[in-house]
């Protein structure tokens, strides 16, 4: 095993001491070392569940007779960076992610790898790292973004991008584009390691929104206030 070079022999006593300081005993050190890599970030929903998936993967690896070690890498979300100078970072991030996985595996003598990835460059980067290392490994996709709701129907992030083009072409108004933006994806609770899989916040139905608007309009009429201000979207 590759990990033998890390943990066997009297000269490796300092390495074993550091590993034991993380809670591993002699039995754990005798098992194959398996790295669990993920690109967790709360900047987008693409990678929001990676820590939960990593915890489940760790339990599975250790139940199968391995010793799991968790590593984190970066992610650049194209859906946020697109159309800005941030896209210059997107392709470069692929190499950075692949290099970080490869370096951690080489530096710690890992015998196998599991890479949990989301959208954009994390997918090809993990595949590149496994190909370079030529060690047993698996790339696990974290899943697609859940659809949101707008005017009683499901709407995906793709339709939000299409709404930008429709706005530029004059086929929809800014208020409609704002509705796409505001309801594009379900909001999720911040995840914790000891939490259960995330569930969307309860969405506000169009009927309840209409009732709130009618109540506000009635109050303005009673007060003799000015007409309802137009909604502006920031693009």
What does the model show?
- There is one protein chain.
- Helices cover 45% and strands 12% of the residues.
- Helix 4 links the parallel strand 1 and strand 2 (67-72).
- The protein has helices at residues 4-7, 13-20, 26-30, 50-63, 78-81, 88-107, 122-133, 157-168, 174-182, 206-223; strands at 33-38, 67-72, 112-117, 137-141, 148-150, 153-155.
- The strands form two sheets. The protein has a four-stranded parallel β-sheet with strand order 2-1-3-4, with helices on both faces. The protein has a two-stranded antiparallel ribbon with strand order 5-6.
- It is built from ten helices and six strands.
- It has 235 residues and is an alpha/beta fold.
- The radius of gyration is 24 Å and the shape is elongated.
- The N and C termini lie far apart (54 Å).
Short description:
The chain is α/β, with parallel strands linked by helices and 235 residues long. It has helices spanning 4-7, 13-20, 26-30, 50-63, 78-81, 88-107, 122-133, 157-168, 174-182, 206-223, and strands at residues 33-38, 67-72, 112-117, 137-141, 148-150, 153-155.
